[in-house]
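Quick note —
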Amino acid sequence: MTSEKSVLPGKLSEGPHGLGNPEDRTLRKVEIEVMIPKLMREKAKIEKCPSEVKEFEKCCKDSSIFMVVKCRKENTSLKDCLTKWYHNEDFKKQCTEEYLKERSEYRRTGIKKAIKRA
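Predicted structure written out below.
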């Protein structure tokens, strides 16, 4: 019996489903620069800045086409809150661990986790 060949490097094509080693904790550049920051933004909006998001959304709904002018204060408040959490090292570590846990589970089972939308 011949082993299947893959164009992916060995560590990305091994594991029970050929999705990578579930125990591998190394991060690729795209994970560091795109995937983890995306998770951080989503978690910050939902868990850390819900009141700012709510105020900004309310302002936008109430202002319709004038929201660019009328909602500057709410937009600034939301951006300040998100930026604060985006630069928080403990929050970044927490999100990195969550990402690695989800990636490991995917590599172990081959089942993608459903994306939660707020």
